[in-house]
Amino acid sequence: MILTTAWTLLALPLASAAFISVFLRKSPKTAGALATLVMGLCFALTCSLIAPYEALKNEGTPVLESSVRWLTAGLFTLNFGVYFNGLTLVMLLVVTGVATLVFLFSTAYMAGDPGTSRYFACLSFFTFSMMGIVLSPNLIQIFIFWELVGLSSYLLIGFWFEKKEACTAAKKAFMTTRVGDAGMMLGLLALSGFMAAGGIGSFDFTVLETALPSLGIPELAMTLIALGLFLGAAGKSAQAPLHVWLPDAMEGPTPVSALIHAATMVAAGIFLLARIFFIFEASPDAMTFIAWTGGLTAFLAALLALVQTDIKKILAYSTVSQLGYMVLALGVSDAQAGILHLTMHAFFKALLFLGAGSLIHAFHSQDIREMGARVLHEGRGSRLYLFKALPVTSLTFLIGTVSLIGLPPFSGFFSKEEVLAAAAHGPAFLFGLALATVLVTAFYNGRLFTIVFLPGGKTSSHASHAEHPLHEGSPAMTVPLILLAVLSVFGSALPIHAWLSSGKEPSHVAPHGLDPLALISVGAALLGFASAALVYWKRSGRLRDALPWLAQPARVLEHKYFLDDIYDRWVCGALEKKARAADLLERYVITEWTINGLGRLARWIGGGLRSFQTGVVQFYALTFLIGALTILFFMTSGWRF
Amino acid sequence: MIPLSHYLIVSGILFSIGLAGLLLRRNLLLVLLSVEIMLNAANLNFIAGSAAHSDTGGQVIAFFVMVVAAAEVTIGLAIAVLLFRKQSSVDTRDISFLKG
């Protein structure tokens, strides 16, 4: 029963995407309603799986699999199917749940856009791809859906393709993740080589997990395989130094940012790490590398968020930073903490992005300083004006913020606490980084919140958009915000650990109460938020004007550690030279000389032959006569072929 | 008894006259006539051969040639009539639809 439902879950979004793109191109309202309904149905189906799954697990069969043989190549057989365990259940709940709310939000946010049908078709297709990853029983199928996710992300980032930045961002996202995917492919190939040598012909997780220790892969090779696979995950989950695409991906519509670039797609990398955790566990060196990547990403990305003024970019860097936390948790061997943080992060980050969408919808601007200035202007100096004008957005955004910086009793607190507790077992420096990230996270969130929601300082006269007073969006926009806010508050009550534990290992220790670690992290979060509020209470602008010694570090941060420049010069520049050489080769040698040359030759010969076709019938008769005489001559002269 | 060679010479002269007419005349009707002359030159050859070798096969072939010539001239004249309707002329220089 569970497996039938799982197959249905895989089929429904694809059918919805196909139906919309074939029949509903001209009726965007119906398309949005259909896509939202289908997604809601998927979520309901997923929820209906919880009870049967728990019953099955109590019987002691926590893993279900159903697949059909797809193709056979020598030793290897490739299956296509669905695979169901606790991790699948949690991910399905996150994907379908957040997707349903985002779809609902989109029906209001995208209203009036000429490409709405295309938008919903792409969004449904994305959900299909993501579910494909989550339900895959083997590595190859994951890889296929992995690429499909990349494709749908490309389509959605470049949704407003008439905007040049959107096109560039879409290309950048696609290519950066391709770099990771190349590593993943190499890892898979290397792994398949050892599998062939060991006589294992299936990439199924169940087979692989039991067979891996018997393959006798040397330690170095195992590390390289694990790192290759991790590179794929790092590309998708925006880990440094492949994180550069995520902030640019904010060119897409805001609900897309909420769904793809906060809640689900970037979670695919974390999910992959958790799914094939046994491969990574086989290589301690790779695990160390993963932990360091995660910790550094978390800290460096949080610093980058300090200097951004675009609300979506701040949230994007915040996502990168939180993904770093998850990778860090996995790197120090606590997969459950990573997945728990993924789930909670999906709730509050989707909430924050949809809240940002609601703000953008109200302000028609993404710059936090402009927002603050306008709030001041319209509120005539009343600090809490925005809470009166946009009560739902403001309150839910506050809940999301508090959850993100990790104050109890919000869901973010518990998951972050587990990540920190896991990091405490790792290297001391990493643990320190993780704690420092808590402080920085709280600071940039305090900055964002104070500037937009509690603006102070002098009312500037140049901000005058008074013709449309600020107002809340339709219920389709506010209801998802409220639901996500509820999840952000009570999300930690979900029995995620119970679902995740396979029964083989002892159940995870429940979040502990107020231990010293929690005190320290909450203290750091409060300190960060309070100091940001203090700093930006009276000013909307730049801290470095007051403290000149901050100018140099701020410059580095504003240039994003010069990573984009380095990529532009050393990677793109080098590639461009090769591309130009290839272009010349193609343009002249292949196209001009070979293809067009053959064409010109044929035309030249034809031109010569053409002059014989005079159209005068008697000329034809003469030619005929000459031909006949020639044949006659050869026949009579005794000439033989 | 006229020797065979005489017949062949007359036949050759007739064929050459027909060929020259075919290649040089500008009037389509005369071109068709020239074709007829060439066919009759061939017929003369067949009859002469038949008589010289006492073989009736040549005469049979001659009848076939006449039948085919009748059919051919029917089609040829029909084409000439249609051409005239189309462009009010039966000059071969005006028939250049096949010009490449």
* Oligomerization category of the chains in this entry: heterodimer
User: Considering DSSP H and I runs of 4 or more, what fraction of the residues of chain A is helical?
Assistant: over 70%
Rg calculated over all Cα atoms of chain B? 17 Å
The CATH C-level name of chain B is Mainly Alpha
The overall pLDDT of chain B, averaged over residues, is 90
What structural class do you assign from the helix and strand content of chain A? mainly alpha
Give the overall silhouette of chain B: elongated
Using brief descriptors, characterize the structure shown:
heterodimer, A: 641 residues, mainly alpha, two-stranded antiparallel ribbon, 3% strand, globular, B: 100 residues, Helix Hairpins, elongated
Describe the structure.
- The complex is a heterodimer of chains A (641) and B (100).
- With 641 residues, chain A is mainly alpha-helical.
- Chain A is 73% helix and 3% strand.
- Chain A has helices at residues 2-23, 28-59, 86-109, 116-135, 139-157, 164-198, 205-211, 219-236, 245-248, 254-263, 267-275, 277-281, 284-305, 311-331, 335-363, 368-379, 385-389, 391-405, 411-423, 428-453, 475-490, 496-500, 516-536, 543-546, 551-558, 563-610, 617-636; strands at 64-73, 76-84.
- In chain A, strands 1-2 form a two-stranded antiparallel sheet.
- The longest helix of chain A has 48 residues, at 563-610.
- Chain A is globular.
- Chain B has 100 residues and is mostly helical.
- Helices cover 78% and strands 0% of the residues of chain B.
- Chain B is built from 3 helices and no strands.
- The longest helix of chain B is centred in the C-terminal third of the chain and has 31 residues, at 57-87.
- Chain B is elongated, with a radius of gyration of 17 Å.
- The model of chain B has no long low-confidence stretch (mean pLDDT 90).
- The chains are: A mainly alpha (641), B mainly alpha (100).
- Chain A binds chain B through residues 609-610, 612-618, 620-622, 625, and chain B through 19, 22-24, 31, 92-93, 95-100.
